[in-house]
Design goal:
Layout: H1 15-22, E1 23-26, H2 30-43, E2 47-52, E3 57-61, E4 65-67, E5 70-74, E6 77-81, E7 84-98, E8 101-116, E9 119-126, H3 130-149
Helix pairs in contact: 2-3
């Protein structure tokens, strides 16, 4: 008998390591960071669910991508399946850490909702790839630069 092996397990990140990936300080006030973050999400095609400057909290999601119309056959009975839907949800928390300093923390999560023969289910997977966060912060930095140059 042989056991299935999926290779070595990835080590779990500590909360400080996750914060290091998901957060960045900017040398601008909270309003500039908030507006820049909101603008970048819209530029990337995210649908804004909520945005509150007072709390510094933004929620958004990508348009859903998915498949539908699949049919499974069990015995001789066709069973339609609703397919699956995938989207990325992001939350942004912006806080002032000084008069001209702010901190932006992003949290990206892949949400998959699937239909199956025996029902549907949801699966949320945190995205912890540092490159994705760095790309987002680079775009926010560019927008911050443009907004401060216009003042």
């Amino acid at each position: 008998m042989s056991a299935c092996s999926s290779g070595p397990a990835k080590p779990q990140l500590t909360s400080l390591e996750i914060q290091a990936i998901q957060a960045k300080n900017f040398d601008v006030d909270k309003k500039t960071s908030f507006d820049s973050s909101l603008s970048v999400l819209q530029d990337l095609g995210y649908i804004i669910g909520s945005a509150s400057f007072e709390t510094g909290f933004i929620t958004a999601q990508s348009p859903a991508k998915g498949t539908s119309g699949s049919v499974y056959f069990i015995g001789m009975l066709p069973i339609p399946v609703s397919g699956s839907e995938q989207k990325t949800v992001v939350t942004v928390a912006v806080e002032a850490v000084g008069p001209k300093k702010s901190r932006v923390r992003l949290n990206f999560v892949d949400k998959t909702r699937g239909g199956g023969v025996f029902g549907s289910g949801e699966n949320d997977t945190p995205i912890l790839d540092p490159v994705i966060y760095q790309n987002a912060f680079d775009k926010i930095s560019e927008t911050v630069f443009i907004k401060t140059a216009q003042k």
